[in-house]
Amino acid sequence: MDQQIDITRAGAREQVAVVPFNRPDKMNALTKVMEAQLRDAFDTLDRNDAVRAIVLTGNGRAFCAGMDIAELEVLPPEDIRAAEWMRPYDMNRRADFQSRYSYFMGVKKPVISAINGAAAGLGLVFALYSDIRFASDKAIFSTAFAKRGLIAEHGIAWMLPRVVGPGHAADMLYSARKVSADEALAMRLVERIVPHDDLLAEAIAYADDLATNVSPRSIRIMKQQLGEAPFQTLGEAIKLANREMFYSIQSEDFTEGVAHFIERRPARFTGA
Questions:
Q1: CA 266 to chain centre
Q2: How far is the C-alpha of 41 from the C-alpha of 27, rounded, in Å?
Q3: For the chain: N or C, fewer Cβ within 10 A?
Q4: Which portions of the chain are predicted below pLDDT 70?
C-alpha cells in the first residue's frame, strides 16, 4: 500500500514520535488511504508506552491542504456517517472524542502540530484537534469550506470558537479567506510562530522537554481534564480534580516528582 504517513522517532531518548503527512507533491491533500493510515498511526502510538509525545507535521511546503479534490469528485459521495469510519466504542473515552477526526482529543499523549505551510479545510481541523499549535512564519490558514459549497465540517463549528472566539470563527468560516501566521497568532489560533527553517526542530525540542521532564501520568490526566471541562460545571470540574488529586498523590510519578526535586537530579518518570 502507498505509504502516505511517515513515523520517525526523535528526542534525546526517542520518546517523541514525528508523524508527517507524506504527499508533498499534492500539498499533503488528504485521501482515504492517508486518513486510515493516520488513525492507525495514532492508535499505535497511543498504546506505545515508549512514546510520550506526538508531533504532527507535513512533508514539503504544506501542512495539509484539505481533502484531495480528486476524491471529492467521486460520485456518489460517501456517507460520512457510515460505520466504516467508526471504531469499536471505548467505554474509557468520551463519546465526543471517538468520531472521525475528534479522536485526536482522546489520545492520551500530547499532540503538537508543527504547521509548516498551508493548513486548509481538514488540515485546519487536524490542527484544531491538536493540543498545541506551532506555526512556521510561512504558514497560511483557511477553513475553505464555504468556497467549495460545503459547511463547517467535522465539529469545527464547536472547536474553532473555543480557540479563537465566536467573531473570528464566523469570519474564518463565512469568508474562507486566507489567514497569515501573524494574524493566526493574534487571534490565538496558534500558540507560537517559529522561523520556517527552525519549526520542526523547535516543535520536537518542546515535545522532548515534555517527554523528559514532565510526568506522563500528569499530562494524561490533565488532557482528560481539559477535554471534559467544556462539558462540565465548575463544581463538576472541581470534583474530578479532587478525585484525581487523591489518586495522583498515591502514584509512583508523585513519589518521583518529589524525590528528583529534593535530590536535585533529572526526573525518571515512568507514567505510573
A1: 28
A2: 20
A3: N
A4: 1, 72-91
